[in-house]
Design a protein that fits this description.
With 260 residues, the protein is mostly helical. It is built from twelve helices and no strands. Helix 1 (2-19) packs across helix 5 (80-103) and helix 3 (49-57) crosses helix 4.
Length: 260
């Protein structure tokens, strides 16, 4: 999930700071200042001492005092100021990572290789969650998402799943284009697999992202193709919204067997 990704980013940055001097990108200082003042003002405005008591006592009363109560409170309903602090740390790590890779171009290949390997493993785990969900019940696949027939995969939630994959598809397509032989076909298969698996997330952002890719591709082909793709996109949106009134029986069947 995103928590482990944040920890991994922190460990990586600490190791790099030990080895070499990290220079921030010129654009990052104004961005960090804005984020810092937002985090401070939001934390002060929303800070509540009772939240600390809730964190310590947990949800089961005094009997859960200790690590279990703290962990349960932080993971299930963290106070707003704590979530703001986590968001600020993520922004700082993002700036540091971008600054690092912009200065050390030779290190990018290791990052991309690791991302590619991680996508293979994540695809395998997600496939198991789709085909046989009872064999792999990860904490992120809660009863709420299962009731909606939406799959979280190895991500925080189905929405994060869809957004990440729609951004990863161009990355995988570019890697496949640069590869050759068996590795190219493996990357093509991985890209297609993610395109199918991400549909089970039920993420509208994923569908919109694919539509934008199709429009962009059509623009590169010809003006007529662009008009056709945009027309089909608009028609699909209108048809889906009118479907409950035009063909209510088919809509109910589709709604029952598809991610909601």
């Amino acid at each position: 999930g995103s928590g482990w990704l944040l920890i991994a980013a922190g460990i990586f940055l600490i190791l790099q700071l030990i080895r070499r001097r990290l220079v921030l990108a010129s654009w990052s200082l104004p961005f960090l200042l804005v984020v810092f003042f937002w985090a401070v003002s939001e934390s002060l405005w929303s800070f509540d001492w009772t939240a600390l008591q809730i964190i310590w006592h947990g949800y089961d009363g005094p009997g859960s005092v200790g690590i279990r109560g703290v962990f349960q409170s932080l993971t299930q309903a963290p106070p707003l100021w704590l979530s703001v602090g986590e968001s600020f740390i993520r922004c700082v790590f993002f700036v540091l990572l971008v600054s690092f890779f912009s200065k050390h171009i030779d290190e990018r290949k290791y990052f991309f290789n690791g991302l590619e390997a991680g996508l293979y493993l994540a695809a395998l785990l997600t496939l198991v969650m789709v085909v046989a969900p009872e064999l792999l019940l990860l904490p992120n696949q809660s009863d709420f998402w299962r009731s909606l027939s939406r799959v979280s995969g190895t991500f925080t939630d189905p929405n994060a799943f869809g957004v990440f994959i729609v951004l990863a598809i161009p990355f995988l397509a570019g890697r496949a284009n640069d590869a050759c032989g068996l590795r190219r076909w493996a990357l093509v298969a991985l890209t297609v697999a993610w395109g199918i698996l991400a549909l089970y997330s039920g993420s509208r952002s994923f569908v919109v992202g694919l539509s934008l890719y199709a429009i962009w591709f059509a623009c590169q082909v010809s003006k007529r193709a662009m008009i056709v793709v945009i027309s089909l996109f608009v028609f699909s949106i209108v048809f889906v919204n009118l479907m409950p009134w035009l063909v209510p029986t088919s809509y109910a069947s589709l709604y029952e067997f598809s991610p909601q």
